[in-house]
TrEMBL record, chain A:
UniProt keyword Oxidoreductase present: yes
Protein name (record): Alpha-ketoacid dehydrogenase subunit beta
Top-level taxon of the source organism: Bacteria
Species: Streptomyces amritsarensis
Region forming the signal peptide: none
Sequence ranges assigned to domain Transketolase-like pyrimidine-binding in this UniProt record: 15-190
Length: 335, 352
């Protein structure tokens, strides 16, 4: 499925977000015997969203481990295995299901290092699907990564590009502390060219995905393609939008955000989470705390409507941030 | 299911056994020294906690403190079946488990005082004792929250091909939680080297066993997951040790998870805040008549391996250890407030 293209650099590879994730997993499994993948249907089924397809055949059932439907037990077992010297990658089908394991994530993974006075590291990576856009209704579609970003002691990553999908896992596994990796469901089929010159990514920095001068559009995960589409539209109107991809919701890279705001003096935050108590609110608070006098206009944001995600397409689309709503918010910001 | 009430009060073996590897693993080690050590550990836990009550009244110790008094035979009996390389996962009523595991009493006491010399640097307190070196993994105050973690430690051992056992203590309250049932299924499905020890003290805080379980035969239900499950008299340390050895040896040799229900009773209230309105005085008195320390002492006296001078020496030994623990805890420094954010992540100064 990986089509090597002669265009561009020799290393550039045409791939999808899903395949990039799989390659990241494959590389981690090859490089470190302690790494194993477990979760519901990661083996024979090939992963609920096909991310781990083929890995069972390559690495066997001990390392590509199908679990019973018991999120709390297998996430907790991942934490215990991490304490026991392994490097588990645990897959949870969706963020909504992760609530069944919230006790283990919050009360054990995030807490053990501190509660034990620095004795116990929990080097676990927990991957899960997040987000809407596929008509999966109110129990498979929410964006709760902002909740997780509230918790000290864990790292919260939101790969939005092929390069991040390909390389974030390796960096996450190198972290001695728990890492949550949120894969937006609408991105799995995203196609593009993997930059063959990149063989590692950092986790601490946000990234400017499109430079601009008039307004900063600050976003992450599944909203990044929407923000980039909005920036295209705005450019046609002569508005130069700078798109910042947060990449990590905890820790938040304030510096990159503030530098962008210092250039544009206006900002729109795009977050698929609900508005109240959201990560967008946190970003806005940090800008106002630290860069209030840089601002030429009130901060604006585009979030999901405060409603459980509906099934019907037109309702779901109306509930989510869309390029048009981002464009509208940016226009108001620069007006 | 088989119910084990094996009492090894019988065969007295000659002291100073010539067998270098000791007696068969399914029998408690006989002999005066071993019995004295068991008694000493139980006495240490008892006196340590009695001192904690005094120190709580004196406001040296704060927060929640859950006493293990009455249940000592379980921690100490099971502890005899575990090796240095094994792991223990415990609950918030874990002073006894920690001390039986060999966590130094001064480190436990300093933790109760909230001092930097405490076994969790004062960040855990009574409910969160940890000792990585002794593979003592807490100290979990979410009822049943330690069970999945214990399964994971066992999974790591299994994947790495070691012969280690992970022992997880929990109560009858945890047995009602989903995490127990998820873990029991997972452990049996994957044949994990896990020893599940349910301390059935008949009350989940204030709710009696019969008021929280439709079927109160806990071992029978555990057996339905496909693992050996035995019930033992948790007030009889010799019986607990015997069955724990049998179970741990079987787990160690690849027999998959085993479940032990130790029937026991806490003599004190649930915590220092509990007025204990839900248990009758008669019931408490009946169980106190089965004090595991008294029973062991009486048996040892009957066997001629304990007398008044030996008891006195033990008491003095334990008292001086606790005195020293209290003194050093009192004298130890607190962690500077400047270090508040240490250990949130491994990278010092991280904003996470």
């Amino acid at each position: 499925m990986n089509t090597r293209q002669s265009a561009g650099t020799a290393e550039a590879t045409r791939t999808t977000y899903r395949e990039a994730l799989r390659e990241g997993l494959r590389e981690a499994l090859r490089q470190d015997d302690r790494v194993f993948l477990m979760g519901e249907d990661v083996g024979r089924y090939g992963g609920c969203f096909g991310v781990s397809l083929g890995l069972l055949e390559e690495f066997g059932p001990d390392r590509i481990r199908d679990t019973p439907l018991s999120e709390s037990a297998f996430v907790g077992a991942g934490i215990g295995a991490a304490l026991g010297g392994m490097r588990p990658v645990v897959e949870i089908m969706t963020v909504n299901f992760s609530l069944l394991a919230l006790d283990q994530i919050m009360n054990n993974a995030a807490t053990l290092l501190h509660m034990s006075g620095g004795q116990l590291n929990v080097p676990i990576v927990i991957r899960m699907t997040t987000g809407a856009g596929r008509q999966l209704a109110a129990q498979h579609s929410h964006s709760l990564e902002g909740w997780y970003a509230h918790i000290p002691g864990i790292r919260v990553l939101t790969p939005a590009t092929l390069d991040d999908a390909r390389h974030m896992l390796a960096a996450a596994l190198a972290d001695p502390d728990p890492v949550l990796l949120f894969e937006h469901g609408s991105l799995y089929n995203a196609e593009g060219v993997l930059d063959g010159t990149i063989d590692a990514v950092g986790l601490d920095s946000a990234s400017v995905r499109r430079p601009g001068t008039d307004v900063s559009v600050i976003t992450y995960g599944g909203s990044l393609p929407k923000a980039l589409a909005a920036a295209e539209t705005l450019a046609e109107d002569g508005i130069s939008a700078e798109v910042v991809d947060l990449r990590s919701l905890r820790p938040l890279d304030d510096a990159t955000v503030l530098e962008s705001v210092a250039r544009t003096h206006r900002a729109v935050i795009v977050d698929e989470g609900w508005r109240s108590g959201s990560i967008s609110a946190e970003v806005m608070a940090r800008i106002t705390e630290q860069s209030f006098y840089e601002l030429d206009a009130p901060l604006r944001r585009v979030c999901s409507q405060e409603v459980p995600m509906p099934y019907a397409r037109q309702l779901e689309e109306a509930a989510l941030p869309q390029p048009a709503s981002i464009v509208a918010a940016a226009r108001k910001a620069v007006a | 299911m088989s119910t084990t009430t094996k009492r090894a009060s019988g065969p007295k073996r000659a002291g100073g056994s010539r067998r270098p590897s000791g007696p068969p693993a399914d029998e408690p080690r006989p002999g005066r020294d071993h019995r004295l050590e068991v008694l000493r550990q139980m006495l240490l836990i008892r006196r340590f906690e009695e001192r904690c009550v005094e120190l709580y009244s004196a406001a040296e110790i704060r927060g929640f403190v859950h006493l293990y008094i009455g249940e000592e035979a379980v921690a100490v009996g099971v502890g005899q079946a575990l090796r240095e390389e094994d792991a223990v996962v415990s609950t918030y009523r874990e002073h006894g488990h920690a001390l039986a595991r060999g966590v130094p009493s001064d480190a436990v006491m300093a933790e109760m005082f909230g001092k930097v010399t405490g076994c969790s640097r004062g960040r855990g307190g009574s409910m969160h004792l940890f000792d990585a070196e002794r593979r003592f993994y807490g100290g979990n105050a979410i009822v049943a929250g330690g069970l999945p973690l214990a399964a994971g430690l066992a999974l790591a051992d299994r994947m790495r091909g070691t012969e280690r056992v992970t022992c997880c203590f929990f109560g009858d309250g945890a047995y009602a939680e989903g995490e127990f049932h998820e873990t029991a299924n997972l452990a049996a499905l994957w044949q994990l080297p896990l020893l599940l020890v349910c301390e059935n003290n008949l009350y989940a805080m204030g709710t009696s066993l019969a008021r929280e379980h439709a079927q109160t035969n806990l071992a029978m239900r555990a057996a339905s997951y496909g693992m050996p499950a035995w019930t033992v008299d948790g007030m009889d340390v010799t019986a607990v040790e015997a069955v724990a050895r049998r179970a741990a040896d079987s787990v160690r040799s690849g027999g998959g998870p085993h479940f032990l229900e130790a029937r026991t009773y806490r003599f004190r209230a649930h915590s220092m805040y509990d007025p204990d309105r839900y248990r009758s005085k008669d019931e408490i008195a009946r169980w106190k008549a089965r004090d595991p320390l008294v029973e062991l002492e009486q048996r040892m006296r009957a066997e001629g391996i304990l007398d008044d001078p030996a008891t006195k020496r033990l008491e003095e030994d334990v008292t001086s250890e606790i005195d020293a623990a209290v003194r050093s805890a009192g004298a130890a420094p607190y962690e500077p407030v400047a270090d508040l954010l240490r250990f949130v992540t491994s990278t010092t100064g991280s904003t996470r």
